[in-house]
Specification:
Layout: H1 5-13, E1 31-37, H2 41-54, E2 59-62, E3 78-79, H3 89-106, E4 117-121, H4 124-139, E5 145-148, H5 149-155, E6 170-174, E7 178-179, H6 182-195, E8 199-201, E9 206-212, E10 215-221, E11 226-233, H7 239-244, E12 252-264, E13 272-275, E14 280-284, E15 289-300, H8 308-321, E16 330-341, E17 347-350, E18 356-360, H9 370-383, H10 397-400
Parallel strand pairs: 1-2, 1-11, 2-8, 4-13, 11-18
Antiparallel strand pairs: 3-7, 4-6, 5-6, 9-10, 10-11, 12-15, 12-16, 13-14, 14-15, 17-18
Length: 416
C-alpha cells in the first residue's frame, strides 16, 4: 500500500479497515544469495539498498526476536554529521543526506526532525577544539556554526549561565542535525525491503555459521539450516558472539548504554543539546518527554539493563547543566548493548573468512549512521569492495595502526 494524503483520507472514510500489514511475516527458505544476520536498522537498511541499488533481491534478514527489538528501538534518536576526521566526515554526511530524503525514498513517515544539535563548550581549549571541528566540517561542505555565550543563550536561555560549576562559554551548532523516530526507521526499512522482495524472518536466531573449505556456505538457525553464498553480520552488541561462530575474535567489547525519559511536559527544548563538561545529551520527544543519556556502564555486559551508579552520573551532569531538571520525575529508563571498538569508530569490511561480511563496532554512533551504514554495507556485499565513504572503517586498522580516534571513547572505561 502506498501512503499518501489520499490513502489516509480514504481509510478514514472506510473506518480504517483497508490497511494491510507493513511487511510479510516470511518463513525461511532453504537457500538465498545473501543472508543478513540482524533485523535492526542497519541490517534492514542493507537489505533495502541491496535490492534498490544493486538489484539483489534474493535476500533474507534473520532476526532472533521481532523487528526493532534491539538497539534501533533502544536509543535516544539523535542524528548528526558534526564529525572532524577525514575518515568520518564523508560517511556521516552521507547518512545525513540520506536521512533528509528518507521519507520520500521509502514512502514512510520516519518523523525526521532537523531541529539542530548544539554542543556546548566550557573553556577556551574546548572552544578551539570545536572551532577546528567546525572548520573541518565546513571544508567538507557540512554546515557548522560556532556560537558565543550570547548566541547559545538565544537558543537555550533556561540553562545555568550565571552560577554553573562549568560556565557555558559557547557552542558548536549544526542546524541540520536533529532527531528521527527510531521505531519508524525499523518499520519503514522493513516495509521498503519487503516490497522489493526481501524475506524478513523474525524469531529466527542464528546458532552457527557453516563453512566448507574456508568459505561460508550458510547458517544454522533455530528454524533449520539455510544455505547462502554470502553471509553478512549486523548484530550490534552481539557481534563478538556471532563472529565467534565463524572462529573470529573481534576488537570489540560489549557494554550497556542507558537512556532515560522524563514525564511529559510542555515544550521546553527545541533541539538537541550536549554538555561539554561531561557526557550528557538531551532532547524532547513529540510526546513531551525529555530524552537523555550519558556514558556507558563501565563493565562488560550483554544485559539490556544498567546500574544505579551510572544513573547517578548521568543525573549529576544533567543537573550541573540544567538545574530545572530536578523538578521532573523520571518515567522510565532502559539499556542497549553497545559494541564498543577500540578506537570508538565502526567496522564495515570483509572478514578473513571468505563470504562473511561484518558491520559492527558502532559505539555511540549506530543510530545516526543507519542509512549510510546500510548503503555502504550493501555496496560492500554486492561488489566485494568498500564504498569510498566507508573506506577507513577497515577491520585490519587495529593491526596496522590506522585508527580513527575521533574522541577517545573506545571500549576502555578510563577513556570516558
Amino acid at each position: 500500500m502506498h501512503f499518501s494524503l489520499l490513502s489516509v483520507l480514504g481509510q478514514a472514510l472506510r473506518g480504517q479497515r483497508g490497511w494491510t500489514p507493513h511487511w510479510r511475516d516470511a518463513g525461511p527458505r532453504d537457500a538465498y544469495d545473501v543472508v543478513i544476520v540482524g533485523g535492526g536498522g542497519h541490517g534492514l537498511a542493507a537489505a533495502y539498498y541491496l535490492a534498490k541499488e544493486h538489484g539483489i533481491t534474493d535476500v533474507a534478514v534473520l532476526e532472533r526476536s521481532h523487528v526493532g527489538s534491539g538497539n534501533v528501538g533502544r536509543n535516544t534518536t539523535i542524528v548528526r554529521s558534526n564529525y572532524g576526521l577525514p575518515g568520518n566526515i564523508p560517511f556521516y554526511e552521507r547518512s545525513m543526506k540520506l536521512w533528509e530524503g528518507l521519507e520520500q525514498d521509502i514512502n514512510y513517515n520516519a518523523m525526521v526532525s532537523q531541529r539542530g544539535v548544539l554542543n556546548l563548550y566550557h573553556s577556551d581549549g574546548q572552544r578551539d577544539a570545536y572551532a577546528r571541528r567546525g572548520n573541518a566540517m565546513r571544508l567538507a561542505a557540512v554546515d557548522a556554526e560556532l556560537l558565543d555565550r550570547e548566541g547559545v543563550r538565544a537558543i537555550v536561555p533556561f540553562i545555568d549561565f550565571d552560577n554553573a560549576r562549568f560556565p557555558v562559554k559557547g557552542g558548536l551548532l549544526q542546524r541540520r542535525g536533529g532527531t528521527v523516530r527510531h521505531d519508524a526507521v525499523a518499520w519503514g526499512y522493513a516495509r521498503a525491503a519487503d516490497a522489493r522482495g526481501v524475506d524478513i524472518v523474525q524469531n529466527c536466531a542464528v546458532t552457527g555459521i557453516r563453512r566448507e573449505g574456508g568459505r561460508v556456505v550458510g547458517v544454522e538457525t533455530c528454524r533449520g539450516p539455510i544455505r547462502a553464498r554470502k553471509v553478512a553480520l549486523s548484530v550490534a552488541g552481539s557481534s563478538s558472539l556471532v563472529a565467534a561462530m565463524a572462529g573470529l575474535r573481534l576488537p570489540i567489547e560489549s557494554h550497556v548504554l542507558q537512556a532515560f525519559v522524563s514525564e511529559g511536559v510542555k515544550p521546553l527544548i527545541d533541539g538537541v543539546m550536549t554538555f561539554g563538561a561531561g557526557h550528557f545529551y538531551i532532547s524532547q520527544s513529540d510526546k513531551g518527554g525529555l530524552v537523555f543519556g550519558g556514558d556507558i556502564d563501565g563493565y562488560n555486559s550483554y544485559a539490556q539493563r544498567g546500574n544505579l551508579a551510572t544513573i547517578e552520573d548521568v543525573m549529576e551532569s544533567g543537573m550541573a547543566l540544567w538545574p530545572g531538571l530536578g523538578r521532573l520525575r523520571l518515567l522510565r529508563h532502559w539499556g542497549g548493548i553497545m559494541d564498543m571498538s577500540m578506537d570508538g569508530s565502526p567496522i564495515i569490511d570483509r572478514t578473513p573468512v571468505d563470504g562473511l561480511y561484518l558491520n559492527a563496532g558502532w559505539c555511540y554512533g549506530g543510530f545516526k549512521a543507519t542509512p549510510a551504514a546500510g548503503f555502504c554495507f550493501a555496496h560492500l556485499i554486492a561488489r566485494d569492495e568498500a564504498h569510498p565513504d566507508a573506506a577507513a572503517f577497515r577491520l585490519d586498522r587495529f593491526a596496522t595502526g590506522h585508527l580513527i580516534d575521533e574522541k577517545g571513547v573506545g571500549a576502555q572505561p578510563n577513556l570516558h
